[in-house]
Specification:
This protein is mostly beta strands and 197 residues long. It has one domain (31-196). Helix content is 4%, strand content 47%. It contains 1 helix and 19 strands. It has one helix at 45-52; strands at residues 2-7, 13-18, 34-35, 56-60, 66-69, 74-76, 80-91, 99-101, 106-115, 118-119, 128-131, 134-143, 146-147, 153-156, 158-159, 165-166, 169-176, 187-190, 193-196. The strands form 5 sheets. Strands 3, 4, 5, 7, 9, 12, 17 and 19 form an 8-stranded parallel β-sheet that branches. It has a 5-stranded parallel β-sheet with strand order 6-8-11-14-18, with no helix packed on it. A two-stranded antiparallel ribbon has the order 1-2. Strand 3, helix 1 and strand 4 (56-60) form a beta-alpha-beta unit. The longest helix is centred in the N-terminal third of the chain and has 8 residues, at 45-52.
């Protein structure tokens, strides 16, 4: 506590007691954005969850090719880009959908394999379910995904009163699936814009 006396006039003085504030300690930089610390063992679902927390660009440092199996669908609630560097597979383990994109959110996946996603929802992609979001997929492989609608990608949007699309836009470039797999990587869309090139 510090006591400060302020003279107001020759007639009176006022004493003001001010609390001392704790010393400012800058917060450490968040480790989000990079999954892993250089080894495959460090590339876990927990590390992925941490990297996805604040959105932004998510990359991987797994020391080479790695597969991350998720036990819950990863909800994308902030604008996010995931770049797998053509080395990373994210798997739903045949038990959960891999990603779900919230309304109005921009989600970009590139150079990534999304495999074995399984959404039990009637309307839900096993790999990615985009509900009124904006989804861009570039140079990705979808393998072994299944769902009630859209094995790889399910995209839903809506029209405004003028017939224009609002939310629910998907642009797909180089969507691949392994030979011999039929309909496991299909993309469905409802009242939404989808461009495949």
């Amino acid at each position: 506590m510090r006591v400060m006396t302020i003279g107001l006039t020759a007639v009176a003085a006022v004493t003001v007691t001010l609390p001392l504030l704790p010393a400012f300690t800058p917060r450490a930089a968040l480790a989000s954005g990079v999954v892993g610390t250089g080894t495959a063992a460090s590339c876990t679902e927990v590390a992925l969850n941490t990297a996805l927390t604040f959105g932004g660009t998510v990359t991987f440092n797994c020391g080479g090719a790695a597969t991350i199996t998720v036990t819950s669908t990863k909800t994308i609630s902030a604008d996010t880009t995931i770049d797998g560097g053509s080395l990373i597979t994210i798997s739903g383990g045949n038990s959960v959908g891999v990603f779900s994109v919230n309304t109005g959110v921009k989600f970009t996946v590139q150079n990534l394999t999304i495999a074995n996603g399984n959404s039990t929802a009637v309307h839900g992609g096993g790999g990615i379910a985009s509900y009124f979001g904006t989804l861009t997929v570039t140079n990705c492989i979808f393998s072994g995904n299944s769902a009630g609608g859209g094995g790889a990608i399910y995209n839903v949007g809506s029209y405004n009163n003028y017939g224009n699309f609002i939310y629910g836009t998907v642009t797909v470039t180089t969507l691949e699936r392994p030979a011999g797999q039929i309909n496991v990587a299909k993309a469905d869309h409802s009242r939404a814009s989808m461009t495949v090139s």
